[in-house]
Specification:
This protein is α+β, with helices and mostly antiparallel strands and about 160 residues long. The chain has helices at about 45-50, 100-115; strands spanning about 10-15, 20-25, 30-35, 60, 65-70, 80-85, 125, 140-145.
């Protein structure tokens, strides 16, 4: 895996290579903590397992460099993720030689936003990086969120 889980300093490392962490969310007046398992016992992220077809996902786009699937906890009528097949832990781990790949991901995002009907009305592209940003999986991924008006600031 390119990069490492070292960019997740607030997460707790456990036996068997597991990495656990948590992230705090607010929903109106409710606040809650989401606990997450970042790596499985095999050392693969959940996204790598999706790429390898070891676990199911609602994949609706795939090419030789990336794939896109619907988020299992959508935050808007349109909410999908675009991930590279190359294992890159986070935005901090993007190398100079990944420039073409990152450009490709954004071209795919543009196309899929149009296909999903949100290109004209607008959409948000989010890349969480590290525990304070609530990155729950150490594999670079872009959330594409649309189909409703967004608010600012987001966090």
């Amino acid at each position: 895996m390119t990069g490492s889980t070292a960019s997740f300093p607030k997460a707790r490392r456990l036996r068997f290579g597991l990495l656990l962490g948590s992230c705090h969310f607010s929903s109106g007046t409710e606040q809650f903590t989401k606990n997450f398992l970042l790596l499985t016992m095999t050392g693969k992220t959940i996204f790598k397992k999706i790429i390898d077809r070891e676990i199911p996902a609602n994949i609706f786009y795939e090419d030789e460099l990336c794939l896109a699937f619907h988020d299992i906890m959508p935050q808007a009528p349109v909410h999908f993720l675009v991930i590279p097949k190359k294992e890159i832990a986070s935005t901090n781990d993007i190398a100079d030689e990944d420039a073409a790949l990152i450009g490709h991901l954004f071209c795919v995002i543009r196309k899929l936003a149009a296909d999903q009907g949100v290109a004209e009305s607008g959409y948000r592209v989010v890349a969480n990086c590290g525990p304070d940003a609530c990155q729950s999986v150490p594999h670079l991924h872009y959330h594409v969120i649309g189909g409703r008006a967004m608010t600012w600031p987001p966090g």
